[in-house]
Structure formats: structure tokens, C-alpha cells
Amino acid sequence: MLRILIADDHTVVREGLKQILAEMSEKVITDEAGNGQEVLHKVWNNEYDIVLLDISMPGRSGLEILKQLKSDKPYLKILILSMHPEEQYAVRALKAGAAGYLTKESTPNELIGAIEKISAGKKYVSSSLAETLACHLETTFGKPLHESLSPGDYVWQAAS
Predict the structure, then answer these.
(1) Looking at the whole model, is its pTM more than 0.70?
(2) Element of type H or E holding 87
(3) Domain containing residue 75
């Protein structure tokens, strides 16, 4: 049995996801949350195998919620499900601890495949994201590590 929390601020999206998940071969129990605070409350008070987390919700962003969840429950598997294209957030989400990133343009079969892969303890990336990551590795191979950092990766500290 798989316990999944669906976290999205749109009711129609949550309902559609529940219908898709009902078609999985494995028995699935779903719960839902409509904002970041509700996600945190439910995860702190219940046990889930996977959280399907929208990256754009009211209040705290999905990336902030992701970081908090991974800090509180590092074993929890989180699949980011977003309307934003992969190149905008996927790498940041994976670095923050997401088990995968899927756009809302994906097919129901892709969603089910991603959930099955994540529930088996693996990471999920689409073939297009895998190609992007491979190209990034190729262009940064042999360069000093600091040259491969993106601007968001730099951490500045004031001199003491």
C-alpha cells in the first residue's frame, strides 16, 4: 500500500491526480493539502510514502517546503509536480532533495511511472532532463568546481 499526499493549491488538479492514482496497480491511499502550511502540518502528523508537491503554492514556495520536509523527514520521497518547465526549477529541486521533477504537461502514464520509480527508492528524471544534465556535466568536466556553480549556488559570508 502506498500513502501519497497531494499538495497543490488547485482543487481540480488534486481531484485529477487522485483519479490518475486510483488507476495504479498498487493500492494507493491519498490525502491532500492546498497550501504549504497544510503540507507541513499533515506531514508532521501523518505518515506518507510520497508527497506530490506543487512548486507554486500560496505562502511559502514549494522549494522552501521541500527543504523543510527534507530537514524534518529526510527519508520522505518528494516528487515535484509543476507547471514550470524543467530548465527553470528541476536541478534546484533535485539539489534540495526532491526524488524527482515532473511537469504538469506530462502524461498520466509518466506520472505513474515516476511514482513507481520513486517508491522503489530511485530518482526520477525525464529523458529531456537527463540529456540536459549530461550536457551540463560534459561542459563542466575538467573545469574548477567553482566555475560550474550557478549564481544561486554561491553562498556569501561576511568577513568576521
Answers:
(1) yes
(2) helix 86-95
(3) 2-153
